[in-house]
Amino acid sequence: MVASPDSKYMSPQEYLQWEARQEIKYEYIDGEVFAMTGGTLPHNDIALNLASALKSHLRGSGCRVNMADGKVGITENGPFHYPDVVVSCDERDQQAIQFLQYPCLIVEVLSPSTEAYDRGAKFTRYRRIETLQEYVLIDAEKIGLDCFRLNDRGLWELHPYEAGDEVHLTSVDFHFPISLLYENVQFPM
Predict the structure, then answer these.
(1) CA distances from 63 to 13, 28, 150, 159 (A)
(2) In this predicted model, what pLDDT tens digit does every residue of 91-144 receive, in sequence order?
(3) Can you point out the beta strands (E) in 10-151?
(4) Alpha-carbon distance 43 to 18, whole Å?
(5) Class of domain 38-182
(6) What are the boundaries of each domain within the chain?
(7) How far apart are alpha carbons 173 and 105 in whole angstroms?
(8) C-beta separation of 80 from 32 below 8 A
(9) 84 phi-psi bin (left φ>0, alpha ψ -120 to 50, beta other)
(10) Which of 10, 109, 141, 153 has a C-alpha 20 to 30 A away from that of 31?
(11) Is-contact 158 111, C-beta < 8 A?
């Protein structure tokens, strides 16, 4: 994520109109826009593997699975982020065109340059979404996944998974071997 060089304050409505005309994606935080940088092939492969499996698992359920271009609004006035994979089973998102606002599951594939941000400030913002039940962080450099799950006391609990584990995403009742995420993925040397 890189700040736009010609930064000036934009209202949420100005951002949504402006970004629709841009060639690249921009996240919107507190009136500023930030260019989304490209990821690696392993990053893309991991996100695609999960999104494909979720799409198949949720077919006919009324849930939406989006990736890469699926923008999420923390509120209708932002901030706006682009998670790697997002699932919404809320009927209020079924007709959404510009962004989803009621996801139950958000997934980020980690990059060395964004890991601290994804675990920190971005997660802090995502936790403001009342419908969010799980936030998943997937390692793109080795087999591993951290699932933060909202418990019945309103606290976020960490459920880590590693090589050989079966992952259970309770928000969409999906069980799968962690190896599914890494199918055809080449790790950096």
Answers:
(1) 27, 25, 19, 23
(2) 999 999 999 999 999 999 999 888 999 999 999 999 999 999 999 999 999 999
(3) 26-29, 32-35, 64-67, 72-73, 80-81, 85-88, 105-110, 134-139, 144-150
(4) 28
(5) alpha beta
(6) 1-37, 38-182
(7) 11
(8) no
(9) alpha
(10) 109
(11) no
Please tell me the distance from the alpha carbon of residue 9 to that of residue 15, in angstroms, as a whole number.
Answer: 9
d(CA 62, CA 141): 33
Is 46:109 a contact under the CB 8 Å cutoff?
yes
pTM of the full structure = 0.93
**Please, what sign has the CA dihedral across residues 70, 124, 145, 3?**
positive
Give, for 167, the enclosing helix (H) or strand (E).
Answer: strand 166-169
Rg (CA), the chain: 16
